[in-house]
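Could someone model guanosine-5'-monophosphate with this protein?
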Amino acid sequence: MEKTELLYEGKAKKIWKTKDENLLISEFKDDLTAFNGGMKSSEAGKGALNNKISTELFKMLATKGVPTHFVEMLDDNNMLHKACEVILIEVIVRNIATGSLTKNLGIEDGTVLPFTLVEFDYKNDALGDPKLNDQHALILGLVKYQDELDKLRRMAREINDILKPYFFEKGLKLVDFKLEFGKDKDGNIILIDEISPDNCRFWDVESGESLDKDRFRKGKGGLKVAYENVLNRILNN
Ligand code: 5GP
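Reply:
Sure, complex below.
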């Protein structure tokens, strides 16, 4: 399948049209951004690592019955996937408090939450991805019905229930992550975008070391080695 026309360029991916209107290609970029584009860099090989990690995770989730947009990995940086109507809600799942939760609510960093927290952010760079409650989402028309918001939460919890033990077996704590969803041509809500260390936080069970984009956000270095480490753990079962 070949790229025909650039549909959209985001911070971490370019989305290309193909000859088939139902299929798109995501090209994973090496660019790194944080704090809504306030911090920018690039790491050669990062895009390919995220493509491979996302491919493995989408395949694994499909075997557990989670519907995703994934079709196939085309080459190092390119993934073929279904074309969807994107739901402009970032679904954030948190098992352990860190990042903006710690900053906004004063919960001590590293606190294991009494239950999994699911939050919605408005996917809107110009507004800095603000928090949404259900009424905000409905007033903005991001979805039509409350049922759809309930479904997003249910799917996010199901995905967490699969990913959390999967990573724990590989010696990684799944601290938190961001998911995106879309509607396929039949109107079904399916998982889209990517699942990678760009949008998940992973802490090594033994050392507590971050193996994700926090290395960049906190200016720690070693980002590529950390992402390779995550991929190797996934591939080595
Ligand atoms: P926080 O709200 O603490 O900054 O992020 C929570 C989790 O969601 C982290 O795993 C983070 O990587 C992910 N996340 C939240 N917002 C975004 C976003 O706009 N882009 C990406 N790539 N990840 C996000």
